[in-house]
Write a structure and sequence with these properties.
Residues 169-339 form the S-Me-THD-like C-terminal domain. The chain is of the alpha+beta class. Helix content is 26%, strand content 28%. The chain folds into 2 domains: 6-209, CV3147-like fold; 220-334, CV3147-like. The chain has helices spanning 12-22, 33-43, 75-91, 106-118, 139-142, 167-181, 205-216, 323-329, and strands spanning 6-7, 46-49, 59-65, 95-100, 122-123, 125-126, 150-153, 159-162, 186-193, 202-203, 229-243, 246-252, 260-266, 269-275, 278-282, 286-291, 297-298, 308-314. β11 and β12 (246-252) form a beta hairpin.
Length: 344
């Protein structure tokens, strides 16, 4: 797959669909599509570059959504600019390029939006290879890149700047700030030299997201060919429920009585798929439910009884399968006391 050299307004739908799939059951990025399209229409396309094409010491800043993502109106531009400028001021260098904090969900769109507002390129990579819905679950962290300074900014220009040597403390403070700032907040974090990007990112993930989005728009059985995504189960959604921050859903195979797939999820995404008590797929690997009729990825918290769906999965980046990677992104990191299913 060739790397596109820029992201223009006509690619926003593909980016949004791809990011919705890679959110792995996390919140839909659809609300961020309009503001991004407007920013690209006003300022022109954002160049898409490889980190290796930047000067080795160039400052790259990871940008993501600290909630549902940028909202319509001038506040979307304000939040992006305020967050990145705060990191620049703290580290004493200008941002040469923006990196998506994660390629799943609204963070993919927030990063491109920030690049458009700042007039800088977007790196064709991201810090996770999928969405986890948690800014601290990052390959950049696994590579030893410090997350701080962390800047969170709201659409009204409110700014929270976090500087601490304790990653857990930074996470707690950022979560509290995001709740206070509300929807539309943007986070800028993990300032890193371009030369170090490869060690903590998944290359070509933005162009891959665009490709996935284009494939989702097709009504074809071969849409997953060559993507690494594997169909796991097809059936009808039933018995959706949950409490205390956890949920379950059952997908029934109408052609085989008694055959079913159980899905476990949290508000930030799907965690595990089991059949007859045997894990079939789960974090850190990608797991997603797609409406069989429309090809639309469905957020876990909006699963409802009735539709026919495809459950698909894809292997995570191999770094998530190391001991330290599983500690950060395996089932136990999300409150499930079990080992992850074997690598796909």
């Amino acid at each position: 797959m060739a790397r596109p050299d820029r992201i223009s307004a006509d690619l926003v739908d593909d980016l949004t669909r791809g990011a919705a799939l890679l959110a792995a059951g996390g919140a839909s990025p659809a609300a961020a599509a309009g503001p991004l399209r407007a920013a690209l229409g006003e300022r022109g396309p954002v160049p898409l570059v490889a980190a290796a094409d930047l000067p080795p010491e160039a400052l790259v800043v990871a940008v993501g959504a600290a909630g549902p993502g940028p909202r319509a109106g001038p506040g979307a531009d304000v939040a992006a600019r305020t967050a990145v400028r705060a990191v620049e001021q703290r580290v004493g260098a200008r941002c040469a390029a923006v990196l998506p904090l994660e390629i799943g969900g609204a963070s993919a769109l927030a990063a491109v939006h920030a690049a458009a507002v700042l007039g800088v390129p977007c790196v064709d990579a991201d810090g996770a290879g999928r969405g986890f819905g948690r800014w601290d679950v990052s390959l950049l962290a696994l590579a030893g890149v410090a997350p701080t300074p962390v800047a969170l900014a709201g659409p009204g220009g409110d700014l929270v700047l976090i500087s601490t040597a304790d990653p857990q403390r930074a996470r707690a403070l950022a979560a509290a700030a995001a709740d206070t700032l509300g929807g539309g907040a943007v986070v800028a974090t993990y300032p890193v030299a371009a030369a170090r990007c490869a060690a903590g990112t998944v290359d070509r993930s933005v162009s891959g997201c665009l490709d996935l989005g284009a494939r989702l728009a097709r009504d074809r059985a071969d849409r997953w060919a060559g993507t690494g995504i594997r169909p796991l189960f097809t059936g009808l959604l039933a018995d959706v429920g949950g409490a205390a921050g956890r949920g379950t859903a059952t997908v029934l195979d109408p052609g085989t009585p008694g055959r079913a797939l159980r899905l476990d999820f949290v508000p930030t995404g799907l965690i595990l798929a089991t059949e007859d008590g045997v894990p079939r797929a789960g974090v850190p690997d990608l797991l997603c439910v797609v409406d069989a009729d429309t090809g639309t990825p469905l957020p876990a918290t909006r699963l409802a009884q009735g539709p026919r769906v495809h459950v698909v999965t894809a292997a995570a980046d191999r770094r998530w399968r190391t001991a330290v990677g599983l500690a950060a992104a395996g089932p136990r990191a999300f409150g499930y006391d079990l080992d992850p299913p074997g690598a796909i």
